[in-house]
Amino acid sequence: MLFRRRHQLPWWKKLLGWLWPRSGLKRAGQYLWHRIARLPGTPHSIAAGVASGAAVSFTPFLGLHFLMGFAVAWLVRGNLLASAIGTAIGNPWTFPFIFALTGQVGGLILGDAVVAEIPAWNWDALLGDPVTYLSAFLPVVFPLLVGGVPVAIVVWLLFYFSFKGLLTGYHAARLNRRQAKKSR
């Protein structure tokens, strides 16, 4: 291979590279910010895309976050690539906190009597009758969905207005630097 390491890393260093970037979290965050800020489009479209991706991360539909993010971004005229980047808010480190928050909000909205305990994993229910499967997992997913909708709306608003302000300033500063460079 052309770009392969001469000495392969041990498996534990590869795993550590997935958990903690070699350049550090600050540098990885800066890289992600520059990737978002340099996307083509207006500050509204980029901010709406990121906000859409972040908002759908607060729903319990784990396999559908990209598609749901694209749909919401399309509805609000947001950038689709920015919505894909925004779904990174929901990741294995944040999902326990997200589900705890949305479950609590759903429990408050529905009343505590509706919130059920998480059932034990049952392959027979999963592979067998769909009615049994739904009756086992609907009491768990429904409060997450009911609590996820208001939380997603708040998250969308927070991300949209914060990113729109940051992107407007970033684009203005970048334009000023270009004009100052041309005038020299």
**Principal-axis shape:** globular
Distance between the termini: 45 Å
Instruction: Supply the number of helical segments.
Output: 8
Structural class: mainly alpha
Helices and strands, in order, run as HHHHHHHH
Strand content: under 5%
Helix content range: over 70%
Number of strands: 0
Name the poorly predicted regions: none
For the residues shown, what is the average pLDDT?
Answer: 86
Which value, in Å, is the CA radius of gyration?
21 Å
Summary keywords:
184 residues, mainly alpha, 0% strand
How would you describe what is shown here?
- InterPro entries: DUF2062.
- The chain crosses the membrane at residues 52-76, 97-116, 136-161.
- Pfam families: DUF2062.
- Residues 27-174 form the DUF2062 domain.
- This is DUF2062 domain-containing protein.
- The structure is a single chain.
- By secondary structure, this protein is an all-alpha fold.
- Helix content is 70%, strand content 0%.
- It has eight helices and no strands.
- It has helices spanning 11-19, 25-37, 43-56, 65-75, 80-86, 95-110, 123-127, 130-183.
- Helix 3 (43-56) packs antiparallel against helix 8 (130-183) and helix 4 (65-75) packs across helix 5 (80-86).
- The protein is globular and about 70 Å long.
- The relative contact order is 0.13.
- The mean pLDDT is 86.
